[in-house]
Amino acid sequence: MVRRVTPPVPSPSPSSATTVPGASPGPSDPSSLPLGTPAPRDGTATDGPATPAQPKERDPFLDNAKFLAIVMVVAGHLIEDLRDVQAAHAIYFFVYLFHMPLFIVISGYLSRNFTILRARKLITGLAVPYVIFEIAYSLPRYFLYGKFEISLLDPYYLTWFLMSLFLWRLSTPVWFQLRWPLAWAVGISILSGTSNLPDELSMNRTMGLLPFYVLGLMLKPEHFAFLRRRWVRLTGAVILVAGLGLAFLVHRGVKTEWIRWRHANTAIGVDDVTGSLIRLAMLLVGALLVAAFLAITTSRRTWFTALGAATIYAYLLHGFVVKVVERFHDQLVNPLGVAAMIAFAVVLTAVLCTRPVRRLTSWAIEPDMSWAFRRRAGARRR
Known about the structure:
The protein is mainly α and 382 residues long. It is built from 19 helices and no strands. Among the domains are: 197 residues, no CATH class; 68 residues, no CATH class.
């Protein structure tokens, strides 16, 4: 009897896989999957034969976008008190239309495979840093004004983003169970403007900006590939230039609270019908500007690409510097002072994302909390 030998099936060549924009090392990040591979939504590995683990190199696209976005955040905070200068007010208005929506879209995209089984990351990456910086940002008020108040459910200053992201990520599995999730999220955002929501849990911003997070969850690698087309990039540049020019024309006629997402319609001074239409327009404008910004973002490796992987450090730390700069307000309220603060924002952001700063502050921003958790069953068996 002649035995039939089945030839082995060749495995795909590693070079044939195209990495997703913003790829990050590690199995927990859906952006590290090859282009066209669906991100696992239940926290499990994809089916298939085991292959030797290979280090994945981060794609610079989203890291570049994150660094440029955090520069806008820092610059916006540095010039916030200088808005008596016309140019500063217009730039502030333009930047606030989309800089946080941009971060939220990216956060949603990188949260596509989050499940409750990954709750440890929620605690170490968001909850613990939130508590630490909520206390830390309350200390200057004590030393300067003798007022020390801490309310862990009512975020102070820029810690609101950690609170909102915590809640958004908890809701992630729900959005994949719904039909038309983005429509639901837009409806929740618009309806939230009709109610005087409490400040606890940053409810106004959490509900109002929710559609951008859900939009990020719905994005796929092919959407980013579409943004890299030449005509789309040119269109994006035109949209951003036109948007900045329009901001210079209308910035004094639009109430700033619309771009901060902090209050209900009645608190801003409009009825619910008008407020709902304005809020819908803000969502559409924000999404358009986010797409335009991503379209012009380079996918090449630059001097700031590596820094884009550590933007959470710049976000949480720059507020202390802003509080110090505010003491020199009178000397900076002029066009030269505004220009200096924008340039300083680039330098400050870069410094706060560097490795030495990360080593000094990682205990607070990326704390090692392994001691606080039970050992996994697999680890006990080993």
